[in-house]
Structures are given as structure tokens and as C-alpha cells.
Task: structure prediction
Amino acid sequence: MRTPHPPPARREPLGRLHPVYQHLPDRPRWTCRACSRDWPCPAARMLLRVEYDLDRVGLSVYLAGQLFDATGDLLRLTEGPLPTPGELYNRFLAWATPQSWRAP
Result:
């Protein structure tokens, strides 16, 4: 007699995942949904490095698109100080350059 196969694993909705996987941007403020820090927060950076592994160009293209969207959103905000272009570059792109991403 054959043992029945278990049903295929179902993917959990984002809200049910471990909080480390919920480090996504909350627009238009561009803060992290999980930890409320500026996005990409340290956890999001680590997860993005793992996701993109050796595809640094792909990561840079993705982050440049996020920077573009964030700049538009943050310029439309009327309250609080706006980040400078240098601050936005450091926040979105500088940490992902080949010089800053060295293997241990």
C-alpha cells in the first residue's frame, strides 16, 4: 500500500512571515514597515544582498529605481526637513557599491 503524498506547501501571507522578512518600504515616508527606520534599513540591506547575491548590477538598478521613487515621494511631503541629495545617495546606493560590499 502506498503512502499518500502530503499536500504541497502553501506560502504564508506577508503578515504571517517572520518579521525579518517584512523589512519593506512604507511609502511615502520611506520608512521600514518592520522597524520604522529609514528604508533600506540594515535588515533590508542584508536581505537585499542575499537576494541579489552576486548580481551587484541588478541590485544597483533596483536601488536606483527605489531612489527615483523615494525622491518624488519625499519632495511631495510638506512637513519636516527633506534629505539632501548626498543623504539619499548614501541611503540608497553607496552601501551597495563594489567597494563597500567585500566578502568576509
Q: What stands out?
A: The CA atoms of residues 37 and 73 lie 17 Å apart. The first helix runs from residue 42 to 52. The first strand starts at residue 25 and ends at 26.
